[in-house]
Amino acid sequence: MDINVDVSNIMLFTDRLVLRSWRETDLNDFYEYASMPGVGEMAGWPHHKSMNATRRILDTFIKEKTAFAIVHRHYNRVIGSLGLHVSWTNQDYRYKHLRAKEIGFVLSKGHWGQGLVPEAVRAVVDYCFTRLDIEALACGHFVENTQSKRVIEKCGFAYVMESEHYAKQLKKYFNAMRYILLRV
Most buried of 12, 17, 49, 125, CB within 10 angstroms? Predict the structure, then answer.
């Protein structure tokens, strides 16, 4: 079952990152990574072609209060995002009785391969299970997205199934792998 979350007043700290709510002053950092071809497409959305597109999505992040900005502590710049979304588990008879959210993440290309996303995901998993009383977290990736697959597996998510996913913004179907992590 879906639950409401509000990350607007939450700050999570890891060795290299701060996860916090989005701010209007994040616009330039957000545009810098979201406008890079290949970044958004891995998550199901087209890279941003204008600052206005980035502004609209930033306004949505701020309004909905369900996504963290991933800030690199060394540079004090936003390098990605991690959101808590409505989960596919709500429709699956095996999991729909659980309080669940789905984690989605994206990271600036220049920071890929440094272990930053697993660091962020682990912090959010801990927060969700200990502070929000969430019982299950789901995650997924397009079959071709081997980087996200590695992140998901490193963070302890268990593979559940492959399914078809329609990425509305890309107007395209993808085969997607679905995973779950249950609170122990």
Answer: 17
